[in-house]
Specification:
This protein has 476 residues and is an alpha+beta fold. It contains twelve helices and 22 strands. The strands form five sheets. Strands 1, 2, 9, 10, 11, 12, 19 and 20 form an eight-stranded mixed β-sheet that branches. Helix 1 runs parallel beside helix 5. It is globular, with a radius of gyration of 23 Å. The protein starts with a strand and ends in a 23-residue tail after the last helix.
Length: 476
């Protein structure tokens, strides 16, 4: 089969692009080496929709961050995804840091981003947990947070509903030019496409090297580690940033959509895309968060995790063809922070600048770009719950006591378009295992439900990636 466009990578960039392309009469395929959508950098990050004040002038980061942030509210409304406007404080503790706040404010003014200065005293009236050493704060009230994987999965569901095809567990092993464009080998199959988009995150350089030795950039992954603080502990209302440095935005406090608080990350160069946490990383976060917040009860952490950023030798996003010899091979690479916030803008940019001049884009009159909301029992009134349970008793069986997730919600997540096929896949979609016990009580039941709905043995159920089986064998 010949596809018009083949996207390599089902993270936030690839999924969002697939959704937008599905509004046209195009044959679109998405390949990913993982067992689920959004299993790379999209899965583990700070989840902030930055407003766009930080990137330097004249960069794609600056242009696309501002545009992307403005598109997110409507996008999340269309997809029925959660977005929470928290606001953000960038805090300074001395005159040098205050000067840097002035630089950020000037950028925000040029880019028409709402902002205001507060004294340390004024800021502490709103955020009493700020340390007394903070002298000045730059507030960005339109800063928001989302669940990145929720948005990516929703985008892919819309794309598939409009005819796009998703191939998980299909790692790309070879790419060659063909008379029609490119032939891509993945998962033991061959895919032919007129145009290829490389949105493979930390794998972007490796993918490019299948076509040329003159890639033009090197991927230099960086690991960021986090604490997740339980919901019952209030730490901050706004996202709290130190003044950014060349290494990044520093150790933050982030109130999440669901009420937990993220503390982190560090920024450590690594040789391979390892998502293991480290003693040094955890110590770094503990020491640095004290510089901006008085009390951070890390003893109330329910989880630590790490994510890998696809940083590169470029200081900017790399969104362009792979040289003159490959005009129909488009890179979306080096999408580090503010990549999440920029994603809607990146999608727009790629289509307007590259795809429209290469392919005829005819509207698909049958395309549906919105997604219906799922049943979330914890958000319903008693009368609404009773009505749902009467129709389907599975919704009355609570599996996850921490997050109050029912069997019905888990089954729906498995049966949905682009549905869950692993314990982590269920967790990403409907949150069993996200609470205090981190799956200690509900995970065995989730395994049982997955086995039943997928018509397989519990031994065959995986935690996340292919072959990450939880159980070794049946013992009776």
């Amino acid at each position: 089969m010949l596809y018009d466009i083949l996207i390599i990578g089902a993270g936030i960039s690839g999924s969002m692009l697939a959704r937008e392309l599905s509004r046209y009469k195009l044959k679109v395929a998405v390949l990913d080496k993982e067992n689920d959508v959004a299993n790379g950098a999209t899965m583990a990050n700070s989840a902030i929709v930055h407003t766009g004040y930080d990137p330097e002038d004249g960069t794609l980061k600056a242009e696309l961050n501002v545009r992307g942030a403005r598109l997110y509210p409507k996008l999340c409304e269309e997809l029925n995804c959660r977005i929470k406007t928290t606001g953000a404080y960038v805090v300074a503790c001395n005159s040098d840091e205050e000067k840097q706040l002035d630089v950020l404010a000037e950028r925000a003014l040029r880019r028409d981003i709402p902002h205001e200065f507060l004294t340390g005293e004024e800021a502490r009236k709103h955020e009493s947990n700020l340390v007394d050493a903070i002298t000045k704060v730059l507030s960005f009230p339109t800063t928001a947070v989302i669940y990145p994987w929720e948005v990516a999965i929703a985008c892919m569901q819309v794309a598939i509903g409009n005819g796009a095809e998703l191939f998980l567990n299909h790692e790309v092993t070879n790419i060659s030019k063909s008379e029609h464009g490119y032939t891509v080998k993945a998962g033991g199959k061959e895919f032919n496409a007129k145009l290829v988009v490389n949105a493979s995150g930390t794998g972007a350089e490796k993918i490019c090297k299948m076509l040329t030795d003159d890639v033009g950039f090197q991927i230099k992954p960086r690991r960021g580690e986090y604490f997740v603080i339980e919901k019952d502990v209030h730490i901050v209302d706004n996202v709290i940033f130190p003044v950014p440095t060349e290494k990044g935005k520093g150790v933050l406090a982030v109130p999440t959509v669901y009420g937990n608080t993220l503390i982190g990350p560090n920024s450590e160069p690594i040789d391979e895309a390892s998502i293991a946490t480290s003693d040094d990383g955890i110590k770094y976060i503990k020491n640095n968060i004290k510089k901006i917040l008085k009390e951070v009860p890390l003893n109330k952490a329910i989880r630590t995790f790490a994510g890998v950023r696809p940083s590169s030798t470029s200081k900017d996003f790399i969104i362009e063809p792979l040289g003159e010899d490959n005009p129909n091979f488009i890179n979306i690479a080096s999408i580090e922070s503010p990549g999440l916030a920029s994603s809607p803008g990146i999608t727009e940019y790629v289509i307007d600048k590259y795809i429209k001049e290469r392919l005829e884009l005819m509207p698909n009159p049958d395309a549906v770009m919105t997604r219906k909301s799922d049943i979330v029992m914890a958000q319903l009134t008693d009368d609404e719950k009773n009505a749902v349970i009467k129709e389907n008793p599975q919704y009355g069986n609570i599996v996850c006591r921490c997050e109050k997730i029912s069997e019905g919600e888990i089954v729906a997540a498995i049966k949905a378009v682009c549905g869950a096929r692993s314990v982590k896949g269920v967790k990403k979609r409907v949150r069993p295992g996200m609470g205090k016990c981190q799956g200690g009580f509900c995970e065995p039941k989730v395994v049982e439900i997955l086995a039943r709905e997928l018509n397989c043995s519990p031994v065959d159920v995986v935690l996340d990636r292919k072959k990450s089986n939880i159980l070794g064998r049946e013992n009776r």
